[in-house]
Amino acid sequence: MVEVNLWSGLRAFADGKDCVEVDAKNVGEVLTGLVAQYPGLEHVIEAGVSVAVDGKVIASGLTEPVKPDSEVYLMQQLKGG
């Protein structure tokens, strides 16, 4: 299981929790697992989110691996400018 930290705006969709656990081996499975457990998150995830794993914002795609001890944060989508 991977612990995923949620920004405050998402907690209402995750039973008020700031950290949830999902069974995942990569970023794509993290997102899929979140939607499976908390369907209310689907619209936010589909609109676009940023995921940080062990302090690195993942820009390379959904296949980036995560480990059970990884520090994972789901954040509002980061945009350049």
Count of strand segments: 5
User: What is the end-to-end distance?
Assistant: 35 Å
Order of helices and strands: EEHHEEE
Oligomer: single chain
| Helix content estimate | 10-25%
SS field, number of helical segments: 2
**Main pleated-sheet profile:** 5 strands, mixed
Determine the strand fraction and express it as a percent band: 25-35%
Rg of Cα set: 11 Å
Sheet with the most strands: spatial strand order = 2-1-5-3-4
Q: Unreliable stretches, pLDDT < 50, 5 or more residues?
A: none
Q: What structural category arises from helix and sheet content? A: alpha+beta
Coarse morphology: globular
Mean residue pLDDT: 93
Considering the chains and any ligands shown, give keywords for the structure.
single chain; alpha+beta; 5-stranded mixed sheet; 2 helices
Description of the structure:
With 81 residues, the protein is of the alpha+beta class. It has 2 helices and 5 strands, in the order E-E-H-H-E-E-E. Strands 2-1-5-3-4 form a 5-stranded mixed beta sheet. Strand 3 and strand 4 form a beta hairpin. The protein is globular, with a radius of gyration of 11 Å. The N and C termini lie far apart (35 Å). The mean pLDDT is 93.
Write the layout of secondary structure elements.
Layout: E1 2-6, E2 19-22, H1 27-37, H2 42-47, E3 49-53, E4 56-57, E5 72-76
Parallel strand pairs: 1-5
Antiparallel strand pairs: 1-2, 3-4, 3-5
